């Protein structure tokens, strides 16, 4: 046993060429921690309202300011990432990869003017609605838990829809709540409008 420990200790202390294996291992470990910390800091910054508003201040950010998700009696406010970025790490990374196409569209000028943005608005909205339909409106459900809904406090129409279609799984939040935070695009040709 001691001979085995001594052998490994000698290997760790002996130089690879200029540095010992132990030094290189420790250096790699520290570099990994620094990389991981920088990566997570960058990911969290891209989830901030400051980051989102840097490109969207003149369009969708202005729209959300008049909604209940921005200002309400309770003071609980949703920021962009609450609705557009999944909270689970794996899903978040997948969404960040998808969002890189959106950043590229901004950099290349595909949506850099209000006119260009409006021309692509329906396409971008449909892509977001499809994503939310596929994940059963997960971002909505992070705040709006079905089991906590008080149907007696809802309008009769909302109570009926929530207690039937939402409860059965036939519909998800985004099926009925398109345009809840942003102005709807031109909905010609979109089913239900």
TrEMBL record:
Binds 4 heme groups per subunit. Heme 4 binds at residues 173, 176-177. Binds 4 heme groups per subunit. Heme 1 binds at residues 52, 55, 102. The keyword Metal-binding applies. It is found in: Cell membrane. One of its GO terms (cellular component) is plasma membrane. GO terms for biological process: anaerobic respiration; denitrification pathway. GO terms for molecular function: electron transfer activity; heme binding; metal ion binding. InterPro entries: Cytochrome_c-type_ET, Multihaem_cyt_sf, NapC/NirT/NrfH, NapC/NirT_cyt_c_N, NapC/NirT_cytc_sf. Its cofactor is heme. It is a single-pass membrane protein. The chain crosses the membrane at residues 21-39. PANTHER family: CYTOCHROME C-TYPE PROTEIN (PTHR30333), CYTOCHROME C-TYPE PROTEIN NAPC (PTHR30333:SF1). This is Cytochrome c-type protein. It comes from Photobacterium sanctipauli.
